[in-house]
Amino acid sequence: xxxxxxxxxxxxxxxxxxxxxxxxxxxxxxxxxx
Length: 34
Description:
Blueprint: H1 3-33
């Protein structure tokens, strides 16, 4: 595997987990506001 391929893989994982964490945080914040 080349360095760029590993970098793109890590970037993709970070974007996926970042979106997941953001959606969970958003749900928790909206739940607290009710």
